[in-house]
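Now for a chain:

_____
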Amino acid sequence: MNKVLREVVMAVEEEGRALRAEFHLPDGPRGRRGNAPIDTEIEERLRAKLQALVPCRFAGEETGVSPAPAASHEEWLWLVDPHDGTYEFLQGRRGSAISVCLLKNRKPVLAVVCSPLSPDRGWDTIAWVEGAGLTRNGAPVEGDFSSAPQIVWASASAVLRPQSFALAARPARFAAMPSIAYRLARVAAGDGIATLSTHGINEYDFAAGLAMVTAAGGVCIDAEGKPLALEGDPERRVSGCFAGQAEAAQRVCSFSGGNLEQEPKRPVRVHLGFPRRADELRLARAAG
């Protein structure tokens, strides 16, 4: 399985370079709001590469479920989110990620999360395979939750309700990052004590991160405080995700029940985004 992991990392990082190139297009990446052509392109290429490595069913966010090329591998499943954090990516914000998880009989055996444009680390690939520890950009991950900084990683929208998220994270502080897959991977790698997603998410969103957090000795629970487990169902949505060091994850989960939505949204302080020629033409025509 270690050889398979190396091949998966190579495949994911190749798509990470494609995602980075898309971000740096002169007019910004193609797409609007939460829809970007690059997402489907990445998924289709990954499907071909991953099914060649382990010929089993493939479930992706963009193209759905593809059957196993070989019937003898029906107990295996690739769960893939080709681009977690598309909306923020299209707004000019960094921190989206590619997430890949391989399940056997509904249990993770391999996971890779790559954020090619992390706002604070640049290129960042975190990987795990059953029977081994986590690696980060090819090097073993050292440390555990006892030495992790007092940071709770929250969704990008947390910056719109800073008071509520600050209260949820205390006595830690919170940091915002678009991708739940990447937030989970960072917590597993020792960059914080917990992370959260207060909205419903699918298994392909959290499978790889769950595998890593669990391997690091942490917990993953839903909005009701129940342990999260994988069923190998890409259509299944869970009520939320609270993960990391057990006490911190439980504390954030307990606070979040309705409290985070009560604070009125603050106005965005810095508008990012990309120059759009179509938008410029439309504005020019409107101006007469």
User: Anything to note?
Assistant: Residues 105 and 261 are 37 Å apart (CA to CA). The helical segments are 2-23, 37-53, 86-90, 162-169, 180-188, 203-215, 246-259, 277-286. The longest strand covers residues 107-118. The chain has eight helices and 15 strands.
